[in-house]
Specification:
The structure holds 2 protein chains of 2 kinds. By secondary structure, chain A is an all-alpha fold. In chain A, 73% of the residues lie in helices and 1% in strands. Chain A has 18 helices and 1 strand. In chain A, helix 4 crosses helix 13. Chain B is mostly helical. Chain B folds into 2 domains: 36 residues, no CATH class; 192 residues, MetI-like fold, CATH 1.10.3720. Chain B is 74% helix and 1% strand. Chain B contains 15 helices and 1 strand. In chain B, helix 4 runs antiparallel to helix 12 and helix 12 runs antiparallel to helix 15. The radius of gyration of chain B is 24 Å and the shape is flat. Classes of the chains: A mainly alpha, B mainly alpha. The interface between A and B is large, with 107 and 122 residues. Strand 1 of chain A pairs parallel with strand 1 of chain B, so a sheet runs across the interface.
């Protein structure tokens, strides 16, 4: 195994060396133009945030972009001292956290079943679940409201939590299934041979190995629920139960008496979880696409997929230790590089799907 | 993969699948079916017909098809999707990505650094994106964009009044463009080098390489992205609603906002459902094609 890895790493670095040689003309006009275009696009992407960053630290903020005359942290202290501000954050945490917990439980169970059992209609079920991704709450909001009313879900935490979980479920289910697919079956079979029954093997062996993947799936679901606007807009009218998104909207609609500094500070707090996650995930997508983290897992005829190696147990344990160590230490490598898990990212971050290389 | 064998296996699988399927069934599939049912009634949000809606046949649909506002909002949405999702986020993003992506004899080292910046517009929640743009396009003289055009002597423009739909479209392009670029760059760099080099050796021009090598290889990725972004853009609500609430008049009333207004401003649940069913029909059509693209991955 170790020999394989070094060979692959050598290969990879050799490729990189060739790349550098290939781009010997480093300051050609074409490149300068390309960097100018990139910089212009980066400005286009960044400038709208200037208001957010300036107004949040301005003691006399307005809707216009201006450099504060007096810089202050007062907007943030207001936010945390103010009962309404704290309540908004707590509510958002309840909705997103609750939805995430429910999702992790139900999609872990279902993802495992879809990954490990074959039954008539399994494929159709997977595709059907994928198709429900095309149903946005926008189209079904009217009946959803009626159903929520009938179930007594209006102005309740649990109602919104369940509906948010349902909206995130199709994607999360595919994610979980992908991660379970990436756990080599042989590890589980070894546990059966050692006398564990199916459930024991699933919970004690497979679940811990798929752990980082489950974590990533949970994070994706959390961000989705955290950002949701339409569902709480329709279902929650009680001022004490609105999440940050609706709080921002209500403050914004009361145009004349807006505390802009407060609004900007709240927006910054609201943005943090999503931005941290996306930057992290993007750094992985772009920086490591050509790395070989666990390409051997997906390569047809390789040790794990063929399952016909000399010392399967040892090989796979080594391989998997490597994969899971990586995914723990650097988060999304596993998610980005492992076979069907790559599909998951394509779905999640709308990354165009890349077929595993031959 | 193990075949389900015997009642114990069947029971296990059913128990494992049930919670997720109930959740999806109850809050995604059932509302869609319920929308279809309600669209044949005159159900209202309040009043007598809220409790006892009666069947009105296809009245809602004939009314929708005769409703100029609905048609206008559908056309607006199609234009919104065309310019922001198809032209902006797919075509334009792909072209820029093609210029940027590493290929034999061309390597931009700083692309990953830019990628982190490019992801920000999509990373922030739609409400925050709308709020920051509200500041950008603020109609007073001190509005950011107005100050820039003021340098060139142009007067302050009421962007969200006079150019509302254009502004909203640009905001949506802003939200998706740069991230789409990052994804396309990743996809383009996945095109095998030897194939491109072979094409170069055979004397293919840059355009011929793009047209006959790169695009055919990336066709599945491009189509998948196109489908997803089209479906998502058809379903947009928050970004536009936050900025304009469909106004001024109904200048930015895309289908999502139309449905919301019918159901929750005019309290016509049945009529709003019928509009929702038409939107669903479009999306499920697109969705079926998307599922076909993904079929080989199950």
């Amino acid at each position: 195994m170790s020999v394989d890895v070094t060979a692959e790493q050598k290969d990879a670095s050799g490729g990189r060396l060739r790349d550098t040689k290939g781009s010997s003309r480093r300051h050609s006009p074409g490149k300068i133009g390309a960097y100018l275009l990139l910089s212009a696009l980066a400005l286009f992407a960044l400038i709208p945030f200037s208001w957010l960053l300036l107004a949040a630290f301005d003691s006399d903020a307005s809707i216009s972009v201006k450099v504060p005359k007096a810089w202050t942290l007062g907007n943030f202290t207001n936010l945390f001292a103010n009962e309404d501000g704290v309540r908004l954050m707590v509510n958002s945490l309840i909705y997103a956290g609750g939805a995430t917990i429910i999702l992790v439980v139900v999609t872990t169970l279902a993802g495992y079943a879809l990954s490990r059992y074959d039954f008539p209609g399994r494929r159709a079920l997977m595709l059907g679940i994928l198709l429900t991704r095309a149903i946005p709450p926008t189209a079904t909001i009217a009946p959803l409201y009626v159903i929520a009313t009938d179930l007594g879900f209006l102005n309740t935490y649990h109602g919104v939590v369940l509906i948010l979980a349902a909206i995130e479920a199709p994607l999360a289910l595919w994610t979980m299934k992908g991660f379970f697919d990436a756990v080599p079956r042989e590890i589980e079979e070894a546990a059966w041979v050692d006398g564990a029954n199916r459930l024991q093997a699933a919970f004690r062996v497979v679940l811990p190995l798929a752990g980082p993947g489950v974590g990533a799936g949970a994070l994706i679901a959390f961000i989705g629920a955290w950002n949701e606007f339409l569902i709480p807009l329709v279902l929650i009218s009680d001022q004490d139960k609105i999440p940050i998104s609706i709080g921002l909207f209500r403050a914004w609609v009361s145009y004349t008496q807006v505390d802009w500094g407060f609004l900007a500070a709240l927006s910054i707090v609201y943005v943090i979880p999503a931005v941290v996650f996306y930057i992290f995930a993007t750094a992985r997508t772009t920086g490591f696409t050509r790395g070989g983290t666990c390409r051997d897992l997906t390569r047809p005829g390789s040790a794990t997929t063929s399952g016909k190696t000399r010392r399967p147990a040892m090989r796979q344990t080594l391989l998997f230790e490597r994969v899971s160590r990586w995914s723990v230490s650097s988060g999304f490598d596993n998610l980005l590089e492992c076979g069907s898990a790559r599909t998951v990212v394509s779905l999640t971050l709308d990354v165009p799907h890349q077929r595993s290389s031959p | 993969m193990r075949r389900v064998d015997g009642w114990r296996d069947t029971l296990t699988v059913m128990a494992f699948l049930a919670p997720a399927l109930i959740l999806i069934g109850l809050f995604l599939v059932w509302p869609a079916l319920w929308a279809l049912y309600q669209s044949f009634t005159n159900k209202a949000l309040t009043g007598l017909t809220a409790m006892n809606p009666s069947f009105v046949g296809i009245d809602n649909y004939t009314r929708l098809l005769a409703d100029g506002d609905f048609f206008a909002s559908l056309l607006r949405t199609v234009a919104f999707v065309f310019f922001s999702a198809i032209v902006g986020q797919t075509l334009f993003a792909f072209l820029i990505a093609y210029l940027m992506a590493n290929r034999p004899g061309w390597k931009l080292r700083a692309v990953p650094v830019f990628a982190v910046i490019f992801v920000l517009p999509l990373a922030v929640p739609e409400t925050v994106a709308a709020l920051t743009w509200a500041s950008m396009v603020n109609g007073t003289e001190s509005g950011f964009i107005n100050r820039i055009i003021g340098v060139f002597g142009a007067g302050p423009i009421q962007w969200l009044q006079d150019y509302a739909m254009e502004t909203v479209t640009i905001v949506n392009i802003w939200r998706g463009l740069s991230f789409a670029m990052v994804l396309f760059i990743a996809a383009l760099e996945g095109v095998p080098r030897d194939v491109l080099e072979a094409a170069m050796v055979d004397g293919a021009s840059a355009w011929q390489q793009l047209r006959w090598v790169t695009i055919p290889i990336l066709r599945p990725q491009i189509l998948t992205f196109l489908m997803l972004t089209t479906i998502t853009t058809f379903g947009i609500f928050g970004l536009v609603y936050f900025l304009t609430r469909g106004g001024p008049g109904n200048a930015t009333e895309i289908v999502g906002i139309y449905i919301y207004n019918q159901a929750f401003q005019f309290f016509e649940i049945g009529y709003g459902s019928a509009a929702g069913v038409l939107l669903l029909a479009i999306l499920l059509g697109l969705g079926t094609y998307y599922v076909r693209l993904m079929r080989d991955q199950v």
